[in-house]
Hints:
Radius of gyration: 17 Å
CATH class: Alpha Beta
Oligomer: single chain
CATH superfamily: Alpha/Beta hydrolase fold, catalytic domain
CATH topology: Rossmann fold
Shape: globular
Mean pLDDT: 95
Strand content: 15-25%
Amino acid sequence: MAPRIVDAGQVRLWSEELGDQEGAPIFLIMGANASAMGWPDEFVGLLLDGGHRVIRYDHRDTGQSTTVADATYDFADLTQDALAVLDAHGVDSAHVVGVSMGGLIGQLLAVDHPERVRTLTLALTGALDMGSTEEAPDHGERISRMIALAEPGADEQSELDRRVALWRELHGDVLPFNAAEYRRLEERAIAHAGTFLPATGHVRLGASTLPHGADDLREVDTPTLILQGSEDPFYPLGFGRHLAGLLPNARLRELEGLGHSIPAVMHSVLAEAILDHVREH
């Protein structure tokens, strides 16, 4: 189907629906400052091969969605954006898959709108209270290198170089790193957005208070799959273990070597885990 622009009150959101209209809907929610193109097409294709209807969208302040001049919105607004996309596509309930910040939005949907969530997959994220079962490993050097890469490139090629360098840090040192793969991903994201300037509107959300916490998650009975990477510098394994301990109907799968990304080498592993979870419920 052709992309659909969703009217979500003060913002307009770019969205896309793919696959069998009669298939069970899988709703993909990307992480902070990332558009729908953050979901690699090859990975989405594996979900489509499972016979599903797949919906993805650009958060406000990313891709082709509205850029908000005064970014005073919060996570509650981003959750309402997600609901607006589901409504526009005529989806009463979906299998929700959220990565990183998208995992936080997925949890908020399950707390406040459980009737809209058939199953929940939370990947590379933490609980709403940001708790962990253990002291996080020291990724200080990697984080420092990422901070040093914060300045956008002066032109498209230098910006692509910067983004690939960031992905190298997020990817980790265990799985083989394919720079060309990440460059293609970012070329597609830039072409989609129509600018090489990076999205930054979600940075301030890191200091905002989430509207729910641990006690609310303990009341969520949505069947949940948690996918956590052993090399993730933002959400180490203790975050996934803490989240699994809060959700009464959750199963945790720890993936050796995976960082804070969705690399081609892990596409089939991640897609199969999601599809198995969806089929089970």
